[in-house]
Write a structure and sequence with these properties.
This protein is of the alpha+beta class and 143 residues long. The chain is built from four helices and six strands, in the order αβααβββββα. The longest helix has 18 residues.
């Protein structure tokens, strides 16, 4: 687990709850998208980007999101979602996730979200601000 924390300095702790299990006895697939959303907001908070995004006209919007399930997770468990950035462009970036199961001591799910900066007033894509770009580059990893 220490290797995971070293690899992902930005990580989010998620406690699996009973209500997230499905009829087959494991965490329902939709729960991972909630976990990733929680990790995404936590990433913005931990890196200080949430305050950079205080301008209500420019906002990050999901273009698409993806999950790959590697191992079923059951209650009780604690997951740690490691987050990092790839593919930074002028108006978009990709946030990647790895979910580590504490009980299994293994990566159980991976995923990503393609995020586009969007001007809420004009309804158009907008460039990533210099402040935001500087922070994103600190957490960028090659794939």
């Amino acid at each position: 687990m220490q290797e995971f924390f070293e690899k992902y300095p930005i990580h989010t702790k998620i406690n699996v709850v009973w209500g997230e299990m499905d009829a087959l006895g494991h965490v329902n697939n939709v729960s991972y998208f909630r976990y990733f959303e929680t990790a995404r907001i936590d990433f913005l908070t931990q890196t200080g980007l949430l305050s950079v995004l205080s301008d209500p006209t420019s906002s990050p919007v999901l273009r698409d999101t993806y999950a790959q399930y590697k191992r079923p997770v059951t209650f009780p468990d604690t997951l740690y979602i490691g987050s990092y950035i790839t593919d930074i462009k002028s108006d978009r970036f990709t946030m990647r996730y790895e979910a580590f199961s504490e009980s299994q001591q293994a990566i159980c799910t991976t995923g990503y979200a393609n995020v586009v900066m969007f001007n809420m007033k004009t309804g158009q894509k907008s460039p990533i601000s210099e402040d935001m770009l500087a922070v994103l580059k600190q957490y960028e990893k090659d794939e």
